[in-house]
Hints:
By secondary structure, this protein is of the alpha+beta class. The protein folds into two domains: 6-48, Arc Repressor Mutant, subunit A; 50-93. It has three helices and three strands. The protein has helices at 8-15, 19-31, 50-92, and strands at residues 6-7, 35-40, 43-48. Strands 1-3-2 form a three-stranded antiparallel β-sheet. The longest helix is centred in the last third of the chain and has 43 residues, at 50-92. It is elongated and about 80 Å long. The relative contact order is 0.10.
Amino acid sequence: MKSGECAVGDIVERMDIHQSGVSRxxxxxxxxxxxxxxxxxxxxxxxxxxxxxxxLEAWVAGYRRHWEARLDRFGAALERKRAAAKTASREKS
Length: 93
């Protein structure tokens, strides 16, 4: 689906999952707003909804900023500890 619309049958072939399982997952994803369905005759074509992934990216970005700042502080503390250990090691020699 990354490259465009996919029929359920195409997904079944690629994923080696029974059609009922694929349909169930697609229904859940559609209810969550992650995919959208378009009827084309007897086929049901599914595609990803960009808006859902934009919302996910915005949500993750908040956590990313939080954790990057914490990890930066942790890295700086480790570096200070290493430097202090080196200094102490040199003074003992």
